[in-house]
Amino acid sequence: MVISTQGLTFTFGHQTVVKSLALQVPEGSIYGFLGPNGAGKTTTIKLLLNLLQTQEGSIHIFDKELKSNRISILSQIGSLIEQPAIYLHLTGRENLLNRALLLEIPATRVDEMLTLVHLTNAAHKKAGQYSLGMKQRLGIALAMLSDPKLLILDEPTNGLDPNGIIEVRELLIKLVKEHNKTVFISSHLLAEVERMATHVGIINNGELLFQGSIDDLAALSQPLVQIETENTVDAANFLTRNNFTVAEINEHHLYVPFTTKQQMGELNTLLNQNGYTIYSINKQQKDLEKLFLDITQNA
Question: What is the pLDDT of residue 213?
Fold first, then answer.
């Protein structure tokens, strides 16, 4: 495990914001750390980066205890917490050169990073003129400059448009697959994490509710086929008679557990051929709120 915590607990005043956390982050994974705003994600990350002192429990990174091996561990971690720390009056390249100088890293590494995050063409443009997506990619380049083994990112897609989110996602997948990194990424967006993560931890009110592989999560958050039709009760009864499971029903929609796209086509054809007019049919993913309810109800 690249990151392993036991009984990690942190209290602000009388409020316990992280409660006996036991994280297990495998090497070579993209670990999605999921939770709503205020769940304890950023506090956990600050503990992992030694920005907050551990009060209770232990943190091991690269199989070493963090407190007694702080310098050697942190030298192998790149991080980005919320917004990247960049100088807006400097160009993208100048920002990287400045950091390289501080870290005593060869300037050749700067151009490698610009290529990696697809900012070569914008290298001589002021960072203040960058889009949000470009700023985030520059932030990741800064975090990657020292060639760390582990990348810790706190909400890196916050405020990004769809293109920016795709850019960051593709970059992180590339870092793991082609550059042998481990990525720990926090988010409150379930759908986004599911698209790139190999492992997931779900936190709420400081407690780890779920931890496992993305396949384990998929089994827990099985998507549904939402069907909009005129008479949902009749349509639901018809589907039940034809060996389909109806998971949920209301006045306007009925829901069937999703298996494949072919299954959606079969449902559509079957209902149409038997006199049911389908106004819409689509795949619906459970949102984080519903997933929390499922986890807590099954606990």
Answer: 87
